[in-house]
User: Fold NADPH2:quinone reductase from Mytilus galloprovincialis.
Amino acid sequence: MFTAAVCTEICKPLEFQQKKDHGLSPFDDEVLLSVKYCGINFADILVCQGKYQSSIPVPFTPGTEVTGIVQEVGKNVKTLKKGDKVVSLIMSGGFSTHCIAPEVFTWKLPSSVDLRAGAGLVVNYGTAYLALTRKANLQQGESVLVTAAAGGTGLAAVEIASKVFKSKHVIAACGGPEKGNIAKSKGATDVIDYKQEKLRNRIKDITGGDGVDVVFDPVGGDMFLDCVKSLAREGRILTIGYASGKIPSIPANLLLLKSGSAMGLFWGEYRIMNTPVFLKSVEDVLEQTRLGNITPHIGKEFPLNKINEAFQYVMGRGSTGKVVISMDRQESNL
Assistant:
């Protein structure tokens, strides 16, 4: 039985469809997967709303970050075989029981990560790793501030800064004690509850007035300006996304006065514009996972037939870590 969540009309709920046969067959450089989990990324929601930078003609099945079991391989496939447990990045089609995936963007899962956790591994950690290394050039012992630190990408940045780079201060800014505790579990040395505390004042206290070397910001909005003002000399601020819904503007003189830098990262674009760098970011994440430095946090799981509720949950901004869809369950006990 082939089951999929299908977008038949933009801005309408996804339809839950079933067929007797999936009718899928891999080309020479592809594999057929039995999908077990698909992670929800905000881009999945945006494309169904017609708000993403690239569109897909309806009807289509969204979903790009999947884990599953290889069922069939194309004749040119060398690195994978039937029965392998894998994680894959596809262009669409992930919220279904079966999908076709390119070999080049499909990797064997490390033995320490199960299929469920694997669905929160590649996008979040690949983004955070490339941002902190290639863009910010984070050095061991430097201090890092992460906003939205209990979200999927934020938690990834906290864990990488703490466990890979051994940062002196890993400051997690998030809303509420529950989210703060999750950030601490991933290695945050300090937590700022921005519902209760002033960001700049706390950073001054934590760093002794020096400011932070690197800011990892998926939030944007008014907080971005406070983050820039909290930079240390020669500090770097990374703009990763705009969860606040507001794209910030900053006075350039603030960067001049601190000899600082502001830079952006659109990780998914590297897949096309610089594939070797993109692939290396994933390979580095998988290696750090094997070393025990990375363990994805799955905040909540929904069954496939509850995908519309899952989208609403993610849009509500109350989620922590990664929210995943299970293909094998018709109801979730989480």
Q: What stands out?
A: Residues 275-290 form the longest helix (16 residues).
